[in-house]
Amino acid sequence: MIARLLEGVPRRGLVALGALLLLLLAFPAFASGYLLSVGFLILYFAFVGQAWNIMMGFAGQLSLGHSLYVGLGAYAAAALYVHFGISPWIGLGASVGIAMLAGAVLGFLAFRFGVAGVYFAILTIAFAEFARIGFDHFSWVQGSSGFFLPVANYATNDLWNLRGSPRMFYYLMLAMSVAAFVACHALLRSRMGYYWQAIRESPEAAQALGVNVFRYKMAAVVISAAMTSLAGVVFAFYYNNLFPEQIFHISRSIELILGPIIGGIGTLVGPLVGALLLTGLAEGMREVMLQLGVEVPGVKQVFYGICLLLVVMFLPHGVWPPLARRLGLERGAGGRGGH
Fold first, then answer.
1. Which residues have CB under 8 Å from 57's CB, separation 6+?
2. Residue 209 and residue 312: Cα distance in Å, rounded?
3. Residue 194 class from Cβ within 10 Å (0-12 exposed, 13-18 middle, 19+ buried)?
4. If DSSP codes are grouped into helix, strand and coil, which group holds residue 242?
5. DSSP code string of 69-122
6. Once rounded to an integer, what is the mean pLDDT over residues 247-270?
7. CA-CA distance, 303 to 279, in Å (whole number)?
8. Could you give the CA distance from residue 260 to residue 21 in angstroms, rounded to a whole number?
């Protein structure tokens, strides 16, 4: 099984991935609390980038409302924990199930009635906005006042209840990111992965060749929603507060998708590269400005916009594909060249 997964991956690529994994494993040993939080954010955005990449990069379905699944996963697990004392690992079933149901409803309405392209993207935004408005008035989770989780002692790690130090959350997010990378690699090399790529390039041609376009589009939406909801659970228990205006807002969705867009849509390493560049540079710039005593409202959003503009103008396929070619890692598991 492992040999089959690694088939076609350049030896140099395996060495590079192994070195990167060792570096990420050792990172908490020399990182400060602030750097550890930045590392967590990078891995978080890399994970949700992989989840979104399944829909857009693999199957060609543009979602601009992916914050919907983050919020549903976060609220479901947090509410079960606060109201009933249910561990988030048990509540995970409800979080994933609700997100998958929402994705299935959205996908069915879109694909059964031929909603595609920009209209599908608008539909995803509408669903996220419906959720934001609904949770704003949902008193069981305190509505717009915010839903707060009890904060335990950070000195004690309780993995079962996701109460613990930033280091514990960092390693949890690292494990999830590695698992997402391996799972997406396996999906791309599966029959469904090849069907997704055929649908991405030309749904009509794929349909003519006998591919059940509706079924495989639905699979992409549901799998992506399930993965994204996992990140929502960790998000809730890491930050310990949830506000509908924050977690369901379209700006949150844009943050989630910028990583794979900057790094390289349809590639496996792209979401990680994009998250590293965007989050690392943005947080570094913010820290420098704080040290200089300069405060500019919205500077992070301006930075994201500039990065996106530069990539669209000079690297339309993202940062990773040309970098992979320069490093001799061009052929791997990625759908459009490189890992």
1. 200, 260, 265, 266, 267, 270, 335, 336
2. 33
3. middle
4. strand
5. HHHHHHHHHHHHHHHH---HHHHHHHHHHHHHHHHHHHHHHHHHTT--THHHHH
6. 93
7. 10
8. 19
pTM > 0.90: yes
Percentage of residues in the chain having pLDDT higher than 90: 72
Position 153 confidence tier, pLDDT thresholds 50, 70, 90: low
Residue type for position 84? F
- Give me the residue label for tokens 């998000």: 235
- Please determine, for residue 3, whether its predicted confidence score (pLDDT) is greater than 90: no
Dump strand ranges (E) for the chain.
Answer: 147-148, 241-242
**Residue entry with tokens 């390039």:** 201
Which amino acid is located at 58 in the chain?
Answer: F
Domain parsing of the chain, residue ranges: 41-326
Q: Scanning the structure block, which residue is given the tokens 């008035």?
A: 137
Length of the chain: 339
Q: For the segment 26-49, what is each residue's pLDDT rounded down to a tens digit?
A: 999 998 888 999 999 999 999 999
CB 39 within 8 A of CB 31: yes
**Which pLDDT band holds residue 4 (cuts at 50, 70, 90)?**
low
Strand partners, 148: 241
